[in-house]
Each structure stands twice: as structure tokens, then as C-alpha cells.
Amino acid sequence: MADGPLIVQSDQTVLLEVDHPQATEARHALASFAELERAPEHVHTYRISNLGLWNARAAGVDAERVLDVLLTYSRYPVPHALLLGIDDTMSRYGRLRLENDPVHGLVMRTDDYPVLEEVLHAKKTAEMFGPRINGETVVVHAASRGQLKQQLLKLGWPAEDLAGYVDGTPYPIGLTEVPETGEVLDGGPAGGPPAQPWRLRPYQRLAVENFWAGGSGVVVLPCGAGKTLVGAGAMATANATTLILVTNTVSARQWKAELLRRTTLTEAEIGEYSGSVKEVRPVTIATYQVLTLKRGGLYPHLELVNGHDWGLIIYDEVHLLPAPIFRMTADLQARRRLGLTATLVREDGRESEVFSLIGPKRYDAPWKDIEAQGHIAPAECVEVRVELPRDERLAYAMAEDADKYRLCSSSDIKLPVVRSLVARHSGEQVLVIGQYLDQLAELGELLEAPVLTGATSVAERQRLFGDFREGRIRVLVVSKVANFSIDLPEASVAVQVSGSYGSRQEEAQRLGRLLRPKEDGKSAHFYTVVSRDTLDQEYAQKRQRFLAEQGYAYTILDAGDLTSN
Description:
By secondary structure, this protein is an alpha/beta fold.
């Protein structure tokens, strides 16, 4: 009997012994097809889901590889029924294929006649088909391409979309890669400063190649690993007009600045389409917020998406895609779509819609692999536990369920702990991150630091972020507006005092603010201050699951030990 780190169970759960010598390599192998569910100290629990297996299959991981991982690392014999089930599930992907027929247009083909009969007679898909061509082929209404993929996924027959894409309006876009000769070369892009040597990193180039070979889909990379450059590489491959969808105006301007540095595009060729500016240019960067603005039951700005012949649409932070964008994307299946994210985790459970409408996962790099290559900073994660005072503990115990999390997560008992942590890292660039505005205001006053929230104007946000990058501000107190698409490479410490309940994606994004490589090679420090024996502690454990899957371990520290030190 092998002494592996895994126990594979018939209910599709996999237990990983964290302290086993092979735990790290087994975790990396599991991450390509299984999702971490629970991550206490000694044994982590993963679940093998259909969607996880189909994402793996689309990314080039076949059933043989999945079974080999389970058999290689399992301590006990793997249940035979589970092995057969995995093989059967993965074989379902691509059994139905969407293709472009020169005579009939969009068609669905299969080599499995009974499967075609099943979906043709399913109530929710029957009306999406046209006439039957032969026993293995049926015409598909072109307008139903996205909806059909959604419904086929629900039926358990995810289709492989090989129908191709429109080229869009041609537009020359090149990368201004500079050989790494060790010297600064003149002639930066768009008349900017002298160009520093740079090239797409091997994993970025592979991500672009995998995306282009698949046509559409999602690239998963850690924060700080250069997802924007993957987008730029895809644009240079497409050489066509491009629409980039981002979370907010600050992110839009960061994208623009990066494209001006890294591509042949000029200021006049990049437009911003946001609440304050409405520019449509060969490359247009729009916010999700403006596209989902609703007036009189209609979305007046969706014309930007479907009224132009885009060759490529890029969805930044695709895990945050709002519902109206999903509906809009269902009608865009003939256009190449690239989703960029640090995590495919969605707290609303709509991962299947990302799979069917944006596309399956095309590339995924484990965070620790990128760290080992020196492209993101190592990070130390610490959970600091505080004890609520007796009166607050009693108030928490008697509170309504809806009020409990706010009571325990915004307790004033956290304030001196935060001040102690900030003092411990005196001279470093520190972000203090929270959920509740009154708590953030108190922290700003206590730390004599500026506070940045959703109410802060775009101009003021850019000024504060700029001052932080330049070192004129050492401590910045921020709300959840800084969770996404904010480039603060100088940040080396984050102190999290409250969050969006048990959100795993938020935890990943907040750590991600710190992962840009540091010039001095130092590790980043990520602290979470939680109230012991409350929902605050329970939610913290849930938030940590995704990062535990990526190989990050949390040290537990008592606040008393911290302040005494």
C-alpha cells in the first residue's frame, strides 16, 4: 500500500494531509481539476466537480492525467466507480461540437447519435435548432449560440465551440518588446520615456498562445503576474479593434497607461467610455458600471458592445461580471472573448456561465509557481485574534443574526491591534483595508492616514494612489474599492479589519495588492484581525480557502502576544 498524501473517497472528495512530504506537489496537481472546500490545519478537503473536470479538459488536461494524479498520490486504493465516473464525465466534453458549415452556417455535430437525440428533444433546447441535416448534424440558429451552450452545460453535455469567430475590423497593434541587453534604450512607445528592456514572460506568452488556439476563454493568473500584458499580447495577436471591459474608471486609466507603455498604440487610439467620458476609438476601455446603467428598463450604452465590429473583447476581473453583461455576452459568441482573473471563484455560484459564455479556462498558473520564478513576491499570512470585551460579547450573543457580523468585525478592540501592526512595519507602505465606513474613519483618525472609499472622487483616488506609489503617503486606509484592478506595487503590508463575509475572491484580491515583486526582495505581510469565537473568525476561515489551495499557510497569533512584543 502506498503512503501518499491523499485519501480519495467515493463521494468525490479528496483529503490532503498537509504535513506529508509530497503534499505540495500533490496540491499543485489537484488544483488543475479539483476545488478546495475546507482548509483547517492538518487535513484539507477538495471536491471533484463536473465543471472542474470540464475546465481541466478544455485546458488540455485529459482523463488519463487526472486518474494518474489520484492513483499516484492516494494512500488507499481509489474507488473503482469514481475512476469510471471521472473518465465518463470528462468524455462528455466535446461529444457535441459547434461548427461552421460552408452551406448551412452554424451547425452542431456529434459522433454519438443518442446524445444528439437527447438534446434535440430537451424542452429548453428544442427551439434553438433548425432542420436536421443528417443523423449526426443539425442546424443551430446563430442567435442561440450562447444560450445553447448554457443549456447544454446544464444537461451535462458541454459543447466544444469550434464554429470560429469574425475577424472584426482590422487594426494594427504591436508590442514594443525590448531585448534585455541590460541597457536603457531610447524611443519608448507613444513618444513616452525611454523604453526599459522587457519581454512577455514565458507563462504570459503561453497564456496568449493557449487562448488564441482555443479562440475564447479565461486566463487565470495571480495578482501582480501581469494579466494586463496577457491582454496586450492577445490584442497584438488579433490585430483588430478591441473593447476592454474593466471594473472602474481608475482601472480603465491604468489599462490605458500600460497599453501606452507596452504597445504601439498612441493616446489618440485609446478611448475611455465611463461615467464622465464617452470616447469610442479603435481600442476602447469601458467600465462595467456604465454598460449596466439602466434607464426606462433599457441599457442605453450596450450599443457600444453590439454596435461595433470588435475583433476582440477583453473582460478584466471576469469573476465579477454582472448579470446584464452575461446576457449581453450570450449574443457575442461569434467574437473572440478573453476573460482575465486571479480566481474563477464566484460567490454567486455562476462559474458555469463564465464557462459557457466567456469560455473555458485556457491557462492557469499556480501562485506559488509564479512566486518561485520571482515574478510575484513571497507573502506571510497572519491571522491575529482578539478577544471581545465582556459587554460586547454579550451584545453579540443577543444580537439578531443579520447584525452579528458587523458587531464583531467592527469592534473598537481591533483599533490598538491595527496601530501596533502598522508601528511594527514603520517605514513600509501599508494598506489598512475594511468593509465599514465608520470603522475606516476611526482608523484614519487613529493612524493619521487618508481614507479612500467609494465616495472619493476619481481625481482624488488617483492623487492618493499616486502619493502612495511615490512614498509621500506611507499608510492608506481603503474600503473595498481597492480590492480590484488597482496597481500599487510599492505596498508590502496589508492589515484587513473586516470584509465581505466569507468571500474567497476578496481575500485573494486583497493579498494580491501586495504581490508585485519588491525591489529589495522582501516578503509581503498580510494580516487579518478577527474577533475570536464569532462569525468574524468563521468567515475568515472561509475566506482563506482559496489561498490555502494556492499553498499559502496562515499563522495564528493572539493579539496579546502581539502587543506584548
